[in-house]
Design goal:
Helices cover about 40% and strands about 10% of the residues. It is of the alpha/beta class.
Length: about 350
């Protein structure tokens, strides 16, 4: 046996639905609504372990050395040698603290490219953006077995966890889900659970009039995006439409499938994508921001109708830090390029925020 092959059965779906029911119940009870993604996920798994409906209905792996305890599996190797496990798959939560694509590739090979990978590397000090080696997000984006997410809040993490359980274990879709989990508490952001797993949702009403711009953010950078929107409004009189994008990669892949379907299957009803459902054919400029390297957000460039700019950890000089002021300045520059505002405002912003 050179790879782990898990058999999806009717019991697999029942087990996943039991877990989803418990997760949904915790949301209705108002559990840890403003907590960090890491705290929320750890709390939810503890609830699943103690709730009679979900206890024993899932597999949990925890290879994080500081938290190892008796009775906790540290790898999926035992599943390889368990015929009942191989013949009757259960939802798999794999908790890890991995900074490299090599380690993630190794552990997902162990899981047979299945499961929900929960990586809290962002919660540890590191010289790298989001605690990950630069090639890790490239591996995530290019690995078609993987659906990567970067939740901004605990509520987003909860919605993604429930969505992943449904897609992987109720619907039986192939592949695995990956979440990077930071440990910063929430700031009152209201999550749209139905839209979060699809990849993006709007945080504020569409602003009336012009000029205005769309700002997209993921993970912890969403806070800087929201702050940039306030700066644009308060300092420059520009309205910004703010979107949370837990998965730029899922959005880009959905738009790619839409384009491929349009090319290859002429005469059939056009297939939509969540990205286009959200942004439509508007020519409003878009600035997409990620805490990873710029290319993660730039995956949307080919699929956005209006002017587009991506910002990431490598967008500036090594001694500069991407923050709300750089995001606001980039938004001003996009509007100036469209001649919707004077180019002098860009120079004023550079000086005002001491960006030069």
């Amino acid at each position: 046996m050179d790879s782990l092959r898990l058999q999806h059965t009717a019991k697999t779906g029942c087990a996943a639905r039991a877990c989803i029911e418990c997760i949904d119940q915790s949301q209705l009870a108002g559990a840890v609504t403003q907590s960090s993604p890491l705290f929320t996920v750890v709390d939810l798994i503890k609830r699943l372990e103690s709730d009679p409906r979900s206890r024993g209905q899932f597999w949990k792996i925890n290879d994080r050395a500081p938290e190892l305890s008796t009775g906790t599996a540290i790898s999926t190797w035992p599943l390889w040698f368990s015929e009942p496990a191989r013949n009757d798959e259960r939802p798999l939560f794999y908790m890890t603290q991995s900074a490299t694509s090599a380690h993630l590739s190794m552990l997902t090979s162990q899981t047979g490219q299945r499961g929900i990978i929960l990586n809290d590397i962002e919660s540890t000090p590191s010289r790298w953006a989001k605690g990950a080696h630069p090639w890790l997000p490239l591996w995530l984006a290019s690995n078609r077995h993987c659906i990567p997410f970067d939740p901004a809040t605990g509520d987003e993490a909860r919605a993604i966890l429930a969505g992943a359980l449904d897609e992987l274990y109720v619907q039986g879709s192939p592949g695995f889900c990956y979440m990077t989990l930071h440990d910063e508490t929430g700031d009152g952001l209201v999550c749209d659970p139905a839209q979060a797993f699809l990849g993006m949702y709007r945080l504020n009403p569409q602003p009336p009039g012009a000029p205005h711009i769309r700002l997209l953010g993921a993970g912890l950078m969403l806070r800087e995006v929201q702050a940039a929107a306030r700066i644009l409004h308060d300092d420059w009189g520009i309205a910004a439409e703010v979107w949370s994008c837990p998965s730029y990669t899922k959005l880009a892949r959905g738009a790619e499938r839409q384009s491929r379907h349009k090319r290859l299957l002429r005469g059939e009803a056009p297939r939509s994508s969540h990205l286009h459902d959200c942004l439509g054919n508007s020519q409003t400029p878009v600035v997409a921001v990620t805490g990873y390297a710029e290319f993660v957000a730039a995956q949307l460039a080919a699929h956005v109708r209006g002017p587009f700019a991506a910002l990431g950890a490598d967008s500036l000089e090594p001694h500069q830090r991407l923050d709300r002021h750089w995001i606001a300045m980039t938004a001003l520059r996009e509007l100036a390029n469209l001649e919707q505002i004077s180019t002098s405002l860009v120079s004023q912003a550079l000086n005002r925020y001491r960006l030069v």
